[in-house]
Design goal:
The complex is a heterodimer of chains A (240) and B (121). Chain A has 240 residues and is α/β, with parallel strands linked by helices. Chain A is 54% helix and 12% strand. In chain A, strand 5 and strand 6 form a beta hairpin. Chain A is elongated and about 80 Å long. Chain B is an all-alpha fold and 121 residues long. The radius of gyration of chain B is 13 Å and the shape is globular. The chains are: A alpha/beta (240), B mainly alpha (121). Chains A and B meet through helix 10 and helix 11 of A and helix 3 and helix 5 of B.
C-alpha cells in the first residue's frame, strides 16, 4: 500500500516523507525502485524521499505528544514547500510501530483528527497506516472518525463516519460526559461552580470520601488534570 | 489506625519535594484527597523520569503502612486512588517512565492490588 503511494509521489516530482522503521525499508525501497522511472537512491540522496524511524518522529521527545507531531509535520512541509522548492508533499506514518501509544492514549486520536487541519492548509496528501488486525474495537472507531478517506483493498473510499476536527472534539466531549455516572455529573457541575468537595458532601450527608472519589472519577474519565481544566471542558461542552 | 485525612499528609511527609512541584500547584485543597493523592502520583512519575528516587522507599513504606493499618476509607484512598493512578497508563502520557519501573518499590501488600497484579510480569 505504501510503495505505490511513494512511487507515485516521486514520479510526480513531489516530496515524500515517511515514518518507516529501518527493518521495513529494504522491502519498501525494493517495491518503489523501478528501473527507468525512479532512482530511489538519487531521491534519498537529494532529500526528495525522506525516511524517519518512530524514535525520530512519534517518540522523538521520549514519549508521544500530538502537538509535537503536528510541529514535526509542519516543519517538514515548510521545508519542502519553501526552500525545498516542491509543489506538493506526500506524508505517510506507519502507526504499527507505536501501537502501544495508539491503543492507550486519547492523545493519538486527537492528533490524527488535528492533522486534517494541516492537510487543508498545505498542498499535501497524508497516508496513515494501521494494522486493523491489531486494533481494538474502540481504537478502530476512533480511526474511522478521524480519517476522511479509507484505503481498503486497493480502493479509496469516502468515509461516512468521518468528523471534521471541531465536530470530532465536540463529539468526544459528549461521549466522555455521557460516560460519567449521575453522581459524577453532579459533582462535576458543583466543582465547576467552585464548591469544595466537603461542601458538596454536606447537603446530601454523603461522606467526603465518596465525593472525593467521585471527583477523582470525573477527572480520570474526562482526562482533565485540574479544576481549571474541568471548567474549560464543561464550558466547551455547554457551547452550542 | 490511620484515618482517611491522614494519608495525604503522610505521603507528603515522605516526599517533601512534592510541596514545590507543578502537580502540587494543580491540586487544590477543595478538590479532595483522591485528586491530591493523584497529583502526588504525577509528581512521583516526574521524579522517576528524572531518576530522583530517593524518597520512593519512604513513600511506598507509607503506602504499605496504610494498607496494613488504615481504616476502610484510608485503604480505599490507597487502593482506588494512589495505586489506581499509579497503574493508569494515561498518567504516563508525558513521561518516559512506565508503571513497571515502580515495581522495585512495591511491597507485597501493594502487589495484591488487582490492577497491579494484572500489570506485574
Amino acid at each position: 500500500m505504501l510503495a505505490p503511494y511513494v512511487h507515485g509521489g516521486l514520479v510526480a516530482g513531489e516530496k515524500c516523507a515517511c515514518i518507516v522503521e529501518v527493518a521495513d525499508r529494504p522491502a519498501l525501497l525494493a517495491q518503489v525502485r523501478r528501473p527507468g522511472d525512479v532512482d530511489v537512491e538519487g531521491c534519498l540522496a537529494s532529500g526528495q524521499l525522506e525516511l524517519f524511524t518512530s524514535a525520530e518522529s512519534y517518540l522523538r521527545r521520549g514519549s508521544f505528544s500530538g502537538d509535537d507531531m503536528v510541529d514535526f509535520w509542519t516543519t517538514s512541509l515548510d521545508g519542502a514547500l519553501g526552500a525545498g522548492g516542491y509543489d506538493a508533499v506526500r506524508h505517510a506514518g506507519d502507526t504499527v510501530v507505536v501501537s502501544e501509544v495508539v491503543e492507550v492514549f486519547d492523545d493519538f486520536a486527537i492528533y490524527e483528527s488535528q492533522l486534517n487541519l494541516l492537510v487543508g492548509r498545505y498542498p499535501q496528501t497524508m497516508l496513515c497506516l494501521y494494522d486493523i488486525r491489531e486494533l481494538g474495537a474502540g481504537v478502530l472507531l476512533e480511526v474511522l472518525r478521524t480519517h476522511p478517506k479509507l484505503l481498503m483493498g486497493g480502493l479509496v473510499i469516502d468515509n461516512p463516519h468521518y468528523l471534521p476536527p471541531d465536530e470530532y472534539l465536540a463529539s468526544r466531549r459528549v461521549r466522555v460526559w455521557a460516560a460519567l455516572s449521575d453522581e459524577e455529573r453532579r459533582v462535576a457541575e458543583l466543582a465547576v461552580e467552585g464548591l469544595r468537595t466537603t461542601e458538596m458532601a454536606a447537603p446530601r450527608s454523603s461522606s467526603s470520601h465518596d465525593v472525593d472519589r467521585a471527583l477523582h472519577g470525573v477527572f480520570r474519565k474526562l482526562g482533565v488534570e485540574s479544576r481549571d481544566d474541568l471548567v474549560r471542558f464543561v464550558t466547551e461542552r455547554r457551547r452550542p | 489506625m490511620i484515618t482517611y485525612l491522614e494519608v495525604h499528609p503522610l505521603l507528603v511527609a515522605a516526599c517533601p519535594s512534592f510541596a514545590g512541584s507543578k502537580p502540587a500547584a494543580l491540586a487544590e485543597e477543595g478538590d479532595g484527597e483522591f485528586i491530591r493523592v493523584g497529583q502526588l502520583v504525577r509528581h512521583l512519575i516526574h521524579l522517576l523520569d528524572a531518576e530522583d528516587t530517593e524518597s520512593f522507599t519512604a513513600v511506598f513504606g507509607v503506602v504499605d503502612w496504610v494498607l496494613a493499618e488504615g481504616d476502610a476509607e484510608a485503604k480505599s484512598l490507597i487502593d482506588n486512588g494512589f495505586l489506581d493512578d499509579l497503574t493508569n497508563p494515561e498518567m504516563y502520557a508525558d513521561a518516559t517512565s512506565r508503571f513497571a519501573d515502580f515495581v522495585p518499590w512495591l511491597t507485597p501488600r501493594a502487589k495484591r492490588h488487582p490492577a497491579v497484579r494484572r500489570l506485574l510480569p
